[in-house]
Amino acid sequence: LTPLLPPIDHRNRGMRTRLGCLSHKSDSYNDFTAILPDKPNRALKRLSTEEATRWADSFDVLLSHKYGLAAFRAFLKTEFSEENLEFWLACEDFKKTRSAAKLAAKAQRIFEEFIDVQAPREVNIDFQTRELTRRNMQEPSLSCFDQAQGKVHSLMEKDSYPRFLRSKIYTDLLSQTQRRLS
User: Fold this and answer.
1) Where are the domains of the chain?
2) Which stretches make up the RGS domain (predicted)?
3) What integer pLDDT is reported at residue 12 of this predicted model?
4) Residue 13 has what pLDDT?
5) What does the pLDDT look like over 84-143, one tens digit per residue?
6) Theoretical Cys-Cys bridge with 36: which of 40, 51, 52, 95, CB 3.0 to 4.6 Å?
7) Which residues, at least 6 apart from 40, have a Cβ–Cβ distance to it below 8 Å?
8) Topology, domain 49-180
9) CA-based angle 159:82:67, to the nearest 5?
10) Distance, CA of 93 to CA of 102 (rounded, Å)
């Protein structure tokens, strides 16, 4: 007798995909071309040890550097938590919206993708923050995601950022920039 398989739950498809990719993920990046934007070989040559070392000064320094942001994104992908950074970046982009007509549509898209319960890339925020953001959606403004964005920033800063600094991705990147000097 063959056991009956449970019906397919399409909401869990993303989790199955993530688990299926687990064996392909690694905390090591010997080839940094995969994480660096633009022309990666030239970018890695231009990245100085001093710049990469400064990423350890503060989380905001890391986020403000395009290669630091790329390396941090690659690290978050190994932890399956890149939605936090993607949400934070979407909020930063949202704050630059100047068209009132586009504001509500952009806000709705961000809410549905990251904030709503069962969102495809739901971020980990508390119930009160989620509900405040839901209320803010009734009259979207440039600040409607501020509290949620702040919570996600704080979570990344206190949790993911210290692990990134200890990660093989970061230490290998530092080593590679130092070897170029030798």
Assistant:
1) 49-180
2) 58-174
3) 43
4) 41
5) 999 999 999 999 999 988 999 999 999 999 999 999 999 999 999 999 999 999 999 999
6) 40
7) 32, 33, 34
8) Regulator of G-protein Signalling 4; domain 2 (1.10.167)
9) 90
10) 12
Phi, psi at 23, each rounded to 5°: -70, -20
pLDDT in tens, 40-51: 455 566 788 999
Predicted TM-score (pTM) of the model is 0.77
pLDDT tens readout for residues 10-46: 444 444 334 333 333 444 444 444 555 544 455 566 7
Give the angle subtended at the CA of 163 by the CAs of 94 and 61, to the nearest 5°: 45
Question: Which residues neighbour 126 within 8 Å (Cβ) at sequence distance 6 or greater?
Answer: 151
Kindly provide the b/e burial profile for residues 96-120, where b requires at least 16 CB atoms within 10 angstroms of the residue's own CB. Answer: ebeeeeebeeebeebbebbbbeeee
Neighbouring C-beta atoms of residue 94, cutoff 10 Å: 20
Residue 95 CA to residue 179 CA, distance in Å, equals 40
